[in-house]
Structure formats: structure tokens, C-alpha cells
Amino acid sequence: MYEFDYQRPSSLSEAASMLSGEATLMAGGQTLIPTLKQRLAMPSAVIDIGGIAELSGISAGGGSVSIGATTRHAAVADSADVKGAIPALAKLAEGIGDPQVRNMGTIGGSIANNDPAADYPAAVVGLGATVHTNKREIAADNFFTGMFETALAEDEIVTKVVFPVPEKAGYMKFPNPASRYAMVGVFVAQTGGGVRVAVTGAGPSVFRVAEMESALGGNFWASAIEGISVSADGLNADIHGSAAYRAHLVGVMARRAVAEAGG
Fold it and tell me: Is 140 inside a domain boundary?
């Protein structure tokens, strides 16, 4: 690691005041710590927000589920509120990484990092969630802007994510057997405003499939998207799978997600 200052603020306002220059935030540290150990980042300071009480916790009511930014994946997976309101979201959290990762990793850290193979971006976009920060509210469709890029300003901190409760929802992924990251994951949700289909793992960032959304809006059954495919152009390709393979998996995982949701 390169040398840096370690800071542990006790409040959101204190953390915001420290966030300047080359300082970086840390919640669970599941991405940042390996990055630092490999000397791939050289922040002037690491601001550990994991102990700020106001950033953690889960609440449900009024047709939504609110999850604090530093809430651990394991807490989401085990939450009775999440299981009762959005079972697919609890299942998604339960499938992230391994027990060690789930007991340290946080939802805010995951979406702020925006790894192209992370699970949470699919839920955020698939459910049409709203990301709250210390400065504003950002709609899901405007939050993820590219590979490892988001709409967050350099001095902005995610405080919570608010998920509308859908009528039906399902998430299915084809995991990399070593990392458990999604080679392709698809979150499908039927809401009062229509159907949303969000794909992670396949491209540089999470994306929606409009043709599938339209088809499922008229007939929420897996058979409705049987003949719909996505183009392999621009999709990820690596030693684990080609772009064409990932394009094929999008259709497979989408149909399975619809079936999981009860369609």
C-alpha cells in the first residue's frame, strides 16, 4: 500500500467535510482494500464511514423499502422487511460473493463503485429505485453512467437507497464460479408503472432491455420473451465468456427471472 491518512468520522456532516482533494470513502472495503493492497490507488486519505449510525439500517412502509448506504449485504439478505416486501432483493443479496463478503460489503459501496458485474445495480435499475445522497436524490436510470462511473460528484456521499415495492419481481444470474460475480444477471420487476428489465454483467454498465419490457407489459410470462434477443455488439468479452455467449445468457436469465417472479 501507499501511505495515506486514515480518518473515521462519527457523523455524515463530519465525513462530508473531510472529503476533498484525493481523499476517498470506505464503507465495507471489499473493493477499496484489495485495490490499495495492489497499489492501484493512491488516496491522500481513507475516510471510513462504516461506523456512522445514520447511514445504516432498513425500514419498510408506504410502499417502499429504504436501505441505508452502509447496510451490509447479509443484513439485507436476512431482513424480514425486505423478504416480506421484495423477496427478490433479499435473494439477490444472499447470492453476493461469499459469507465473508456479505458480512462486510455494503449496498452503498457496491452502487458507488459500479462494477459492471455487481448485482445491486440490476436491482436499483430493475426496481426503479431512488439513490439519496447528502446533496440530492438521483433516479436509478440516471445514476449509473458507465463502467465504474456514476452520477455522483466527487464530494457526494450515498446515504440510502429507496426501493418501490413491486407487484412481482425476480432476479436470476449466471455467476462466475470463482468470484460469484454475475457473468450475466437479470432483474425483472412488474410495477404499477410497467415492467422493467435490468441486466448486469453483460455490458460495461447495467442496462435495460426495452423490447423485453414491452413484451412482458402485455403478457408477463417467460414465453412472451422467448424469441427476443440482445445484440452482442458492445457486450463484455473475457476468458470466462464471449460477447455472444453473454448475449445468449441475457435471454436465458431473463426468462428464468420472469418465472422466478411467478410469470
Answer: no
Please report, for the domain that includes residue 42, its CATH number. 3.30.43.10
Question: What are the backbone dihedrals phi and psi of residue 243, each rounded to the nearest 5 degrees, phi first?
Answer: -60, -40
Residue closest to 228 by CA, chosen among 190, 191, 199: 199
Q: Is the dihedral of CA 54, 60, 63, 69 positive or negative?
A: positive
3-state secondary structure of 139: strand
245 in any annotated domain: yes
Domain count, the chain: 2
Decide if 150 is inside a domain: no
Q: Is the pTM of this model over 0.90?
A: yes
What is the Cα–Cα distance from 143 to 23, expressed in whole angstroms? Answer: 22
How far apart CA 105 and CA 107 sit, in angstroms, is 7
pLDDT in tens, 26-66: 999 999 999 999 999 999 999 999 999 999 999 999 999 99
Residue 239 domain-assigned?
yes
For 189-213, the DSSP string reads EEETTEEEEEEESSSSS-EE-HHHH
Helices vs. strands in the chain: H and E counts, helices first: 11, 14
